[in-house]
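Changelog excerpt

This revision adds worked examples to the README so contributors can see how folded entries look when concatenated. The first example is reproduced verbatim below.
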Amino acid sequence: MTLYHVRWCPECQIVKQKLDELGLPYEDVIVPDMRPHRAQVYEVSGQYYVPVLKDGDKVLSETRDILSHLETTYGSTAARSEIT
C-alpha cells in the first residue's frame, strides 16, 4: 500500500491517522507541493491532487473514498481479530 501526499495537507493527515489507527503498513511518499510537479501522483492516478492511496490494483484519490475503503477492507478485519 502506498500513500502519496504533501506534508501540509490536512486531508492527507486524516488518511495517515486512519492508516496508523488500523495498524496498516504503507509506503509514505511525499510529493512536491506544486501540483504540476507531482509526476508520481499523475502516473498512478491520472490527476495531480492528493491524497492518493494505491492499495494493490486499486487507486483512490478522494479522501472520503480512501477512508471508506480502509474501513471496509481493513476495519472489520481488525475488529474481528480483537474479538478472537
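The second example, added in the same revision:
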Amino acid sequence: MAKKMLLFLLLFVGERNFAQDNLSGKWSMYLFQENPADSINLNLSIGAPEKNMLYPALLEIKDNEFLGSYELLLVKKNVRQYFISKNKFPLKETPFQLEKCLAYFNGFLELVKDLRGVPQLTLNRMPFSKNSDKNVTEAISSNSHFNVLKNTLQSVPIVFRKINNDIWSDTGTYKILQPEVSPTYFGILDTMSVHNRSGTLAFITNKDNDIISVKLNSINIVDMIDSKKRRPEEEFVLDTGMNLICFFADDFGNRPSCSASFNLTIDRNPKTISFDSPENKDATFIVAKVIYSKEESSLTTFKEGKNLNDFGNEQIQNSVTQNSDSSLNRQSKWIGNIITYSPEITLAIWDDAVDDGDSISLMVNNQWITRSMRVRNKPFFFKVQLEPGNNEITFVADNLGSIAPNTSVLEIIDGKKRKSFNIETDYNKNNIMRIVYEVK
C-alpha cells in the first residue's frame, strides 16, 4: 500500500512539474553520421518570455566545418506547442551561407517528456509555398557539408533535449521582441496604442480551409476553426498596459501557405491582418502588440490587493476577499470576456453531455445568485442586472457528479446576440469570466 501511495505521489508531482516546466534554457541535439566528420550539433537557447507568450531564441548549427547562429522568435500557443517565426536572422555563418535552408525549420516545436522524464522539443514541420521551396531547392552546393546540413533541416527528425535552465540573454533578446528595432521581421507588427479597451475581430473567409486560432493574452478568442466557413465577429476586452493578440496558422489547408485574413478594430480604427501578405507568406503566426493606456476602474478586489490585470490570463490565483466561503479559495481559470451595452443580460446554463448529477453555485459581483443548482440537459435561465464597467461571474463546483470534472455550458443572451462558453470546474478550480457593461 505504501509503495502504491509513493508511486501515486511521484506521478502527481511529475505531472505538476511538467505543467510548470519553463521553456527558457538551453536545448541540444547531436546527430551522428556514418562519417564522424559529418556529425551535426544543433543548440537552441531560449530567453525569458514576454507575457509568458513570446520567447526570443538563438539557434546554433555546427559541424566540423560550418558554424551558424540565427535569431528567431517562438510564440506559445499552449503548454505543448511553440510556433516558430518564419524569418531567422543570421548573426554568423561561416564558411558558407545556409540562410535559405532555414525555411525548412518552420512549423512548431512540441514540448513533451521522454520515458525518463527529460523534457524534449520535437520539430513539427509546416509546408511552405512553391516559390519558397524553389528558392531553397536552388540552394545547391558542391560542398558536401552544405548538402548534409540542408538535408538535416529538410527531412531529418529534429528533437532537442533540455540541457540546463540557463536563460539566454544578450542585446539580441530585447531587439527580437521589439519590432521597431528588431534586425528583421519576426512576425510582430508595429505596436499600437489605443484608448478604448473594447474591440472586435472579424474573420474574412478565404478559398482554402486553413485552420486558424486567435489568442488574446493566452485566452482563446477562437481555437482551431476552419477559415473557409463564415463566422460572426468576436468581441474582446483589452487589459491595461501591453496586450498580445496572436494569430496562429495551425494548418495550411489544402494548399501550402495559409491565406486567412482578419479585420481587427479598436478605437473604431480597422486594421487588416493577413497571412496572405508577402511578409507573412509561409508564416505560422502573426502577433499584434496593443497598448491600452487609459486607466480602468476595477470593481473587483482580490487578495494581496491585485486586480484582474495583475494576474496571468491562464489562471487567476485566489479569490474575492469579500466572501469567506472556502470554495472561493480555490484557483480559478479565466474563461473570457464579453462586452454589452445593455444593463440586463440573461444567463442560460445546462449540461450538453450526460446528466450525471453535477451541481454548481453561481456568483455575480460577489453576490450568490444560486447555490447548489443541479445542472440538467434542460437549460436554467437567470436574469442578471449589471453594473457599469466590469462585472464578474464566478462558477463553483459543489460536486463532481458521477463523471468528473463538473461540466456545463453557459450561454449569454444579450438581446438577439448569443455567445456560449464551456464551463469546467472541480474541487481545485473555479471558472471566472468578465462582462463589461459600457454605458452609451
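Reviewer comment on example two: The longest strand covers residues 241-251. The two ends are 64 Å apart (CA to CA).
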